[in-house]
Every structure is written in structure tokens, then in C-alpha cells.
Specification:
Blueprint: E1 2-8, E2 12-18, H1 22-34, E3 39-43, E4 53-57, H2 63-89
Antiparallel strand pairs: 1-2, 2-4, 3-4
Helix pairs in contact: 1-2
């Protein structure tokens, strides 16, 4: 996965996720909502031709820090899922 920063401002961030589907970006968007981002959405115009573009806006916090916190949340969710999956199928 390659990440391309399309725009970065004091309170706004636009990022393109190359060769990614809706799955990762949608999970990240939800984690951003949980981080209380003021606006977090993504678009993927064509399912096969376009890469998803995530847009994040904040009013008072640095959007990069909010994105880092959301990425940590996604990583922790993945670890929790892996642990529960192993536990469920260890029987």
C-alpha cells in the first residue's frame, strides 16, 4: 500500500490510498469518527479504476495527530480480533 498526501492544511488532510479497496479506508473513517474528527469521509469514484481518497477535517486538533490515533485504534482492533479468533478456534 502506498499513501499519497494530496493536500495538508492546518485543519484538513486529503490522502489517497493506492491499490486499496473500501475495506481499510472505511474502517479508518469509522475510527476517525470515534476520535471525534469533525469530518471524515472518503470517495472512490470507480471501483476498479480509482483509488480511495480520505478527507479529514478538524476544528481544533492537528489532523495528522487525529489520523495517527485512529490508525492506532485500527491496529488495536486488529490485534483484539486476532486474539479472539484464536481463542474461538482453539477448542
Amino acid at each position: 500500500m502506498n499513501i499519497k498526501i494530496l493536500g495538508k492544511g492546518k485543519n484538513k488532510l486529503r490522502i489517497e490510498f493506492e491499490d486499496e479497496s473500501h475495506t481499510l479506508v472505511n474502517l479508518l473513517r469509522k475510527a476517525l469518527w470515534n476520535q471525534k474528527a469533525d469530518y471524515a469521509a472518503y470517495e472512490k469514484i470507480h471501483p476498479y479504476l480509482d483509488n480511495p481518497v480520505l478527507v479529514l477535517e478538524t476544528k481544533k486538533r492537528d489532523p495528522v495527530n487525529v489520523l495517527k490515533a485512529a490508525a492506532r485504534d485500527v491496529s488495536n482492533m486488529s490485534k483484539d480480533f486476532k486474539k479472539e479468533f484464536k481463542r474461538a478456534f482453539a477448542k
